[in-house]
Design goal:
The protein is α/β, with parallel strands linked by helices and 588 residues long. It is built from 23 helices and 18 strands. The chain has a six-stranded parallel sheet, with helices on both faces. Strands 9-8-7-10-11-12 form a six-stranded parallel sheet. It has a six-stranded parallel sheet with strand order 14-13-15-16-18-17.
Length: 588
């Protein structure tokens, strides 16, 4: 069907319907109402979706459930706002309990018309409690291309979530503003030249949402796109696998089979098994700050293993390049916050790396594209290592680099959020130590940092935690675990008296209130704090001293190694130097 460019709502609804149809939707059951007008029109206009009008929502829900049972694929049910949505509840419960895929689309009023006695309005967010496999409220319709891409990708995730890992209901609450009828809006029509359907929907495929998709199917489907593409990259993202060496071997096999570079996040064990893979790119964030080089390096295809790296430079570059992307992860989460042309393959790295391409001969001729990455990595890595090795001043960025150089083999390292995790991404050098990084990058908060590190270290080999002062102070009650803790934990605490990451943000220019309300210095004497909890303490006065205290590590006990730095100096150094490491490279 052609997209409906008459107004914002009709375009939004027609993109949603077209996406679902391309995924395999054949049937939609529509209940009458005003707020759902755009949805009803979009389903009714689509010549490949059977739209069935049913008056009673309770009956409609069970009717759709019956169709979904016999087709073994999702069926859509649509209703207007208010108590209409509540009448779907029994069918939603049954779909959950009997494992039937159902896509529940409830129209709603926009946020400004809620909680003000606007008619036909109830709280529809999470209306069905814990029964849906997944539920969310969509953004209010708008015409920005980035928001239309968000809509497409969210629809894909909703479809997948209704099928995997167990079939069941998914609820999308969809607010609409007036005009609800398809009255013309010129700004919507103006998008016709920008939005080319075959390009926009190119990544939407029903094959990738079938339960029977496994490595043998993927091999045939991806052979042409992957094996014949020279401008491809593998992104080894944030990961803490149970068997890190096997994980790294799988990614290395994928790299060697395809002849693509591996952009390895500092929180991935890939950087610590460098001997397995000759084409690990550890300085991608610094390389991509060279705009000329970033343009030359734009990929056609990107395979993302696990979550995306932290790097804002990498994310911005991917958004600009818009490569065909594949997210490899056994979870059923949506792993693309960029809302790109992304398909999710619900496989582990080991299944993909050692299975999907198992018939491919390992070994390849180095392409010009791969050589460009390799040369850039060699030059930037040498510049970083040379700068850090010669640096005598105690500043925060060198700490992460030094840890990658001196820690004993296989040391478990817990890395706190905010600046430590970013300095690890910038500067952690590839090595053959087998170090396993640990982290709390689910919600990316600083709460529980110390306690989590104790958990990593308990009955484990001697472990290290890298943290800033605020993350440590936020969880000092974790020291109460000392009487239960078995093992050793060294806490490398970078004390710049406040939140150093905020110095890197635009709000740092505004004083007041920056220092008091964002940097939040606490003026704590860490030696006295350690004395209170009967924890060992050393104030670091040189890099040589820090290296000596990190290798070998004690076998028992807890100690804090305080590294005092200046927030202003640290942030100034990053601003002045991060863009310089790749600044002189001109590429091919």
């Amino acid at each position: 069907m052609p997209l409906d460019f008459r107004n914002t709502n009709t375009l939004w609804a027609s993109i949603l319907v077209e996406t679902l149809q391309r995924l395999g939707l054949t049937t939609a059951v529509i209940c009458p109402g005003s707020r759902s007008t755009a949805l009803a029109i979009a389903f009714a206009r689509h010549d490949r979706v059977e739209a069935i009008s049913v008056l009673d929502e309770r009956s409609a829900g069970f009717f759709a459930l019956g169709i979904a049972r016999q087709k073994a694929q999702p069926v859509v049910i649509v209703c207007t706002s208010g108590t209409a949505a509540a009448n779907f509840y029994p069918a939603v419960i049954e779909a959950r309990e009997s494992r039937v895929p159902l896509l529940v689309l409830t129209a709603d009023r926009p946020p400004e018309l809620r909680d003000c006695h606007s008619g036909q309005t109830i709280d529809q967010v999470k209306l069905y409690g814990h029964y849906p496999n997944w539920q969310t409220e969509l953004a209010t319709p708008s015409l920005e291309m980035s928001m239309l891409a968000y809509l497409r990708q969210t629809a894909i995730h909703a479809w997948d979530s209704s099928l995997f890992p167990v079939p069941g209901p998914v609820h999308l609450n969809i607010p609409f503003r007036d005009p609800l009828a398809p009255l013309p809006q010129p700004e919507a029509g103006a998008l016709m030249s920008q939005l080319q359907p075959e390009d926009f929907f190119g990544a939407v495929s029903p094959l990738l949402s079938r339960l029977e998709v496994r490595t043998e199917v993927l091999t045939a489907h991806l052979k042409e796109e992957w094996l014949e593409c020279e401008r491809g990259i593998i992104i080894a993202g944030v990961a803490q696998p149970k068997q890190p060496k096997e994980y790294c071997e799988a990614i290395a096999h994928l790299c060697k089979s395809l002849g693509w570079p591996v952009l390895a996040e500092g929180l991935s064990p890939v950087r610590n098994y460098a001997q397995l893979n000759p084409y690990v790119i550890s300085t991608y964030d610094l390389i991509l700050r060279n705009r000329h080089l970033a343009q030359q390096l734009k990929p056609a295809v990107a395979i993302q293993v696990g979550d995306l790296p932290t790097s804002k430079e990498l994310r911005t570059w991917l958004e600009s390049a818009q490569p065909r992307r594949w997210a490899i992860d056994p979870s059923y989460d949506n792993l693309d916050p960029l809302h790109g042309k992304t398909a999710h393959l619900r496989l582990s790295a080991v299944e993909m790396g050692l299975g999907a391409l198992q018939n491919r001969k390992v070994g390849f001729a180095c392409s010009e594209y791969l050589q460009l990455w390799y040369n850039a990595e060699a030059k930037v890595r040498a510049a970083v290592d040379g700068t850090m090795a010669a640096m005598e001043e105690i500043i925060e960025p060198k700490v992460a680099w030094l840890l990658s150089q001196v820690l004993p083999p296989a040391t478990p390292v817990f890395i706190a959020n905010s600046m430590p995790v970013r300095d690890v991404e910038f500067f952690w050098a590839p090595n053959n130590s087998g170090i396993q990084p640990y982290f709390n990058r689910g919600a990316n908060g600083i709460d529980g940092t110390l306690s989590t590190a104790f958990g990593v270290a308990h009955r484990n080999q001697s472990s290290v935690m890298l943290t800033g002062d605020l993350a440590l102070l936020h969880d000092t009650n974790g020291f109460l675990l000392r009487n239960k803790f078995v093992g050793h934990l060294t806490i490398v605490a970078i004390n710049n008296n406040g939140g150093g990451i905020f110095e890197m943000l635009p709000v740092a220019q505004f004083e007041p209130p920056f220092e008091e309300f964002f940097a939040t210095p606490q003026d704590i004497d860490f030696e006295q704090l350690c004395c209170t909890y009967n924890v060992g303490y050393n104030l670091i006065s040189s890099w040589e001293q820090l290296a000596r205290l990190l290798n070998p590590l004690p076998e028992r006990g807890i100690r804090v190694l305080e590294v005092r730095t200046s927030r202003k100096v640290d942030s100034r150094w990053r601003r002045e130097n991060l863009g310089k490491f790749a600044g002189e490279i001109r590429g091919i």
